[in-house]
Amino acid sequence: MMPKDAIVVKDLTKVFGTFRAVDGIRFTVRQGEIFGFLGPNGAGKSTTIRMLCGLIQPTAGQGTVAGWDIVRQADQLKHHIGYMSQRFSLYEDLTALENLRFFGGIYGLGPERLAARAQEVLQQVGLWERRHQVTGTLSLGLRQRLALASALLHEPPILFLDEPTSGVDPISRRNFWDMIYGLAAQGVTILVTTHYMEEAEFCDQLVLIYQGRIIAQGAPQDLKKAMPDNILAIYPDRLGDSLDLLKQQPQFKDVAVFGDGLHLYALFPDRAEMAIQQLLSAHGITIREMHRIQPSLEDAFIYLIERASLRAGEGGNDDSGRVDRVQHG
Q: All domains of the chain, ordered by start, with CATH?
């Protein structure tokens, strides 16, 4: 029987030589949650997933997945999870159906069960009509669906998705997330890493990981609410020049491009508006529009990363490893 806490991680650490890829992280994933892992490249997301799937051993710490210990019971654990890696792990010279037969053999499914499940999952992801098509001739979005089908073949209660939509078009991403919602509604627990902020919004809970440490965790809406409401949206006629100028000013923090404008965190927004107008005007830049906005998840992400980076640069003050745990209410 699946425990209520589907994934439990305590002080999990992974060191490669002198590099601490994952540094004492803690989190819990409830059964049926869509749990997002968000962070820049090299933050430790994929390393964490590989430890939780029993593919590599942690240097220190503990973890259980579906009640199985990730170190002592790694072999048993692999039969209770589905894992979809960034590269999909498909054999491109096999047909879609042949790929599933191969993975079914690895999972130990008998012939009758494998035939039934292969049809079920291919229909579930909309590939039954293409079951005899060679995988290498499928579009990236369709290969993504096939990779999901192979991860679901043995009906695992927990699914790990590592950057599952990287490189696919927006429509394929949206369709993929519709399938993820459907799986979660059936009680499947899903841990997903992503670079896309709009995807992070779809998760029930998020952790933000930076340089191997979790720097914040909570529901997406609560992470946004935790950020000070001091974001200015600026729309200048010379975006690149404006960005360079504002980044040179120490009083302005977290300046970033958003679409055809800039978002800027200012401690005193009213004063900042006047200073920005004067600075850009002095360089011949016209501001078409400037106003205060509610922080987006991307604003919160940039703000928290900048704050964590500042703490690390200060030489490890007492709060340098603190996690911002954001809870509703």
A: 5-223 (3.40.50.300), 226-325 (3.30.70.100)
